[in-house]
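Q: Got a minute? One more chain.
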Amino acid sequence: MKGIKVKEEQDVQIDLDITSYIPDTYIEDSSQKIDIYQKIALCRTEEDIANVIDEIIDRFGNLPDELNNLIEVARIKNMCKKANVLKISEKKNRVTGSQNVVFYFDKDKFDPNIITTLLKKYGTKIKFSTGIEPYITLLLKNVTEKELLEEIKQFLNETNGDGAVLSQK
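A: Always. Here it is, folded:
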């Protein structure tokens, strides 16, 4: 079609060491399981996520932790798109027990001024590079899967809270 510009959806990679899947003991039928995976993958808004959660609970009962983690990852992907984050990667330090979560930003939309805001909140808990591929590393110590997901969501809220990370380009 001419004259209609289609906005290409940003693909977000999430590489976290968490348990996130639909257990066989929760949904035994593979076609139902695939259907739920697809519905989660198609969520674009918080309302979409809430609707999928309601449907799952109505059909199968309370969410197991693994499925709840999967839904949180879908929520984080949506938050990443708003914050111009292309990838989140977790790196564990086996010696110190700490976890580093690296947020890789879209270089064309990254506003380095966000670093000032983040330094005020996180201080020495973050490290950053504004080079060719801008990224910010959040340093965490011995957090559970649930705490890890919450820390990531909080960080993404900070980067997008007042729109500071969004460039006007």
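A: Residues 162-169 have pLDDT under 50 and may be disordered.
Q: Perfect, thanks.
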